[in-house]
Amino acid sequence: MAAAASSSCTLRGVGAVASAKPRSAAAPAARSARVAAAAKGPARGRLVARNAVAVTPRRMRRPRRLDPSQAALREGLIEEMKSDPTVCVMGEDVGHYGGSYKVTKGLAEMFGDLRVLDTPIAENSFTGMGIGAAMKGLRPIVEGMNMGFLLLAYNQISNNCGMLHYTSGGQFKIPVVIRGPGGVGRQLGAEHSQRLESYFQSIPGLQMVACSTPYNAKGLMKAAIRSENPVVLFEHVLLYNLKEKIPDEEYICCLEVAEMVRPGEHVTILTYSRMRYHVMQAAKTLVNKGYDPEVIDIRSLKPFDLHTIGNSIKKTHRVLIVEECMRTGGIGASLRSAIIDNFWDYLDAPIMCLSSQDVPTPYAGTLEDATVVQPAQIVAAVEQICQ
Amino acid sequence: MAAAALLRRLPAARAPATAFMAARPISDSTATLTIETSIPFTAHLVDPPSRDVTTTPAELMTFFRDMSLMRRMEIAADSLYKAKLIRGFCHLYDGQEAVAVGMEAAITRSDSIITAYRDHCTYLARGGDLVSAFAELMGREGGCSRGKGGSMHFYKKDANFYGGHGIVGAQGQLFEALNISALWKLPAILVCENNHYGMGTAEWRAAKSPAYYKRGDYVPGLKVDGMDVLAVKQACKFAKDHAVANGPIVLEMDTYRYHGHSMSDPGSTYRTRDEISGVRQERDPIERVRKLIYAHDLATAAELKDMEKEIRKDVDAAIAKAKEISMPDTSELFTNVYKKGYGVESFGPDRKEMRATLP
User: Fold this and answer.
1) I want to staple A362 with a disulfide (CB 3.0 to 4.6 A). Which of A358, B148, B261, B313 is the partner?
2) Can you tell me the ipTM of this complex?
3) Is the CB of A189 less than 8 angstroms away from the CB of B152?
4) pLDDT of the residue at B207
């Protein structure tokens, strides 16, 4: 039975800070408390009982550690790879290097070079390879070092990933997870600050989710791996080091469900990924000003969770969408359209959508800040909607 | 030569830096020197050029100066990055200077160059100035891309330098380029700066054949010691003559980067510190030229040291100047999206009505 004692997952040997030590001197493969307890000795590659327990008194006295998102993602990966031998990872520098954002750190030591495959720099080819492997029965996770690089694999993602299940009349399924960090970071330049969710959203056959907290990162990762459909998991460059306590017990987040972040009465604010944090920051100001915003992290970018969204709109009658996509053709544009189609009668005000500017992301810090939506703009928008 | 030797016995001039440089007769000498490259060239489908490279003392001094300037700039960029004045991604070129410098010695500014994200020194070699480079790195409006590009997006149109690109690597595109340029006999030189690591992955783990100069298959290739600026110059001269006459050629520059892939990469998790210091000791491009300068009596150690000190001052001055340049104004966010202003007008079918401005 999962002990009630520790509600934090202690991952030892894995930190948010990149280690400068040579790989051979790195700490052994990351294990959660329950896995480590059950292992009792070198557990490399061994399948470990899922609900193993044993939290020792000494561990209870250890200070509680909060999990950064990349560790939560890693934990989800490890759990799925341990329970299903067909799950494998492929991408650039995912194996020996441990991943450019450390999401796959230690996995190559645990599962071997074939299941954690270092590919050459050839996105189009290794995405195609992942899709082929999925057609053959494996469950690959294809990592784009940065989402922007996956543009080089667009043909594979659109034509093969999205279409093959349909064009083969249902014969082939593509249970692939395509994941990687995207979004506007800290002055990474135009090509490394792209928001591909707006480019991929039209591809039929593809499912898209965006994680935003360590909790939903792990849950969505697990759900995406288990899904029979191709899922694109959008992580964000700036959210890898956010920390949160996550449950010891196994859990999954439903891929198609939105997350209620803050219930409220006055206005529904729909957001996802990094903008969630800007919205919550604005929410603090709004609460001080007497507003009661309802904040929903939509999480599922394709399809939209219109059930949760609709119920919220029926309550508040006002909608503000806050996204990091560009205004033209972004997720917000589609969401707005879907809300108008379905919930027109419940709206008391026009839907407002705050998006990034339609410009390549500039390098200069001041310009970059002006490109994305800032909390002050969110506050102003809510005040305008609630007039 | 006797007059030159006499001048060297005089005490070092106390004149200001520029005057000091102008008073160096040895640096201006255009007497021919023939120097052998470190190793012979290895060739694929073509006869390699000779190992004997003709150069002049003036050129060697220029090589030393340019490479030292590049080295100094990259090291200064390292400090600026750690001081958080440069943000984002910063890929440093130190160790590879000979490639940029040797290449420029063999081509002209009307020949075009395009490269990837490790472009600071290529920009400099194409005639870019230090202040614009640092200003761009620090995101100021005086930068070569007006602060909007950053480290990976340096360009210089008037020098035919086409950048500066962040997303690279697609091998399929390489073969497409080889095929098309060979088919149409385009005067293209495909240079592989082989620093042996693709970020954290060693070349033997990512490439079936490490002989990149042979990768062109039907396209001839040359393997060059990329740490020897004279070899690079010879190879590029040979390649340019070949390309203009016969079509594409591949050049593999065997070089090395001392820093990690970028400032976010320590550079020591996938290679040993011994390897890095070994290359620095045995093959450093600047040291090689320094030894040549001594061997041919072109300058003394003190003179070279003074030159390096002056370079250091120049770089520091450029950084100070760049720091004073302001950040771009917020209105700059919307400039240069399209050629004719931010909004592009769209017309109706008869081109008379329905004017709308697209975002």
Assistant:
1) B148
2) 0.81
3) yes
4) 92
